[in-house]
């Protein structure tokens, strides 16, 4: 089965090269290097080192560099989650790169249902397997998606926007709250998306756009 290596990358390429060497490379494998949109000479050197290594081992391997805005967490997690979900055997390493990039990759692994990611410790240089966190199912019903898109609002507003009874809107919100996608702002008495809800909605929209395209 083809493998897909997805790694956050900063100035040091050694952990990824070691991981690739241990796992091996086949002709249909692919590598994604995830780094900051802000270029740095040391990062470019690290990318070149990885490309040279992979070309020497197996010239047919596809390598793609993803340059992401570190501050755009929601969008980054959604993009990476879709890549991971479309990979047959994702092998994820979050050792390198800016913290915003490695965190985005870790969260994307969680949303995609990947059970573990790799990380090399800074002190001893040992690779450890990190368990991921359980996230809500990435599939939303049409009604749930409509509700999330309508927020922030009060129960009465959601009822009006969705064309359902107030009791139905209330049950829908309670269900979304149980899933950790919505929370109630007690000061303003309105329901809002949690960060998890925002990311899941972004993933759903991206998947829908890719199907249309």
CATH top level class name of the largest domain? Alpha Beta
Query: What is the count of distinct domains?
Result: 2
Biggest sheet strand order reads 3-2-1-4
Q: Which class best fits the helix and strand makeup?
A: alpha/beta
Run of helices and strands: EHEHEHEHEEHHHEEH
Strand content: 15-25%
Residue runs with pLDDT of under 50 for 5 or more positions: none
- CATH architectural designation of the largest domain: 3-Layer(aba) Sandwich
CATH T-level fold name of the largest domain: Rossmann fold
Assign an overall shape.
elongated
Quantity of strands, as a count: 8
Q: Would you kindly provide a written description of the structure presented here, covering whatever features stand out?
A:
There is one protein chain. With 213 residues, this protein is of the alpha/beta class. The chain has 2 domains: 4-131, Rossmann fold; 142-212, Arc Repressor Mutant, subunit A (Orthogonal Bundle). Helices cover 47% and strands 19% of the residues. The chain has 8 helices and 8 strands; from the N terminus they run E-H-E-H-E-H-E-H-E-E-H-H-H-E-E-H. The protein has helices spanning 14-23, 41-57, 73-85, 99-111, 142-150, 155-162, 166-178, 195-212; strands spanning 4-8, 30-36, 62-68, 90-93, 116-120, 127-131, 182-185, 190-193. The protein has a 4-stranded parallel beta sheet, sandwiched between helices. The two termini are 27 Å apart. The mean pLDDT is 92.
Keywords:
alpha/beta; two-stranded antiparallel ribbon; elongated; Arc Repressor Mutant, subunit A; 213 residues; 2 domains
Provide a brief overview of the structure.
With 213 residues, the chain is of the alpha/beta class. The protein has 8 helices and 8 strands, in the order βαβαβαβαββαααββα. Helix 3 (73-85) packs across helix 4 and helix 3 (73-85) packs across helix 8.
């Amino acid at each position: 089965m083809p493998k897909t290596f997805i790694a956050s990358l900063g100035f040091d390429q050694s952990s990824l090269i070691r991981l690739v060497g241990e796992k091996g490379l086949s002709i249909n494998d692919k590598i994604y290097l995830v780094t900051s949109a802000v270029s740095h000479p040391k990062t470019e050197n690290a990318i070149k080192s990885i490309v040279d290594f992979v070309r020497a081992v197996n010239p047919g391997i596809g390598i793609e560099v993803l340059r992401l805005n570190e501050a755009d967490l929601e969008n980054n997690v959604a993009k990476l989650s879709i890549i991971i979900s479309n990979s047959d055997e994702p092998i994820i390493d979050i050792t390198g790169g800016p913290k915003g990039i490695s965190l985005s990759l870790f969260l994307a692994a969680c949303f995609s249902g990947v059970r573990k990611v790799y990380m090399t410790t800074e002190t001893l240089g040992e690779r450890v397997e990190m368990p991921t966190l359980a996230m809500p199912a990435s599939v939303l019903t049409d009604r749930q998606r409509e509700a999330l898109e309508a927020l922030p609002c009060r129960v009465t507003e959601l009822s009006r926007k969705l064309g359902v009874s107030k009791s139905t809107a209330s049950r829908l919100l309670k269900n979304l709250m149980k899933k950790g996608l919505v929370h109630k702002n007690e000061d303003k008495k309105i329901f809002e998306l949690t960060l998890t809800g925002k990311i899941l909605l972004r993933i759903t929209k991206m998947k829908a756009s890719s199907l249309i395209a």
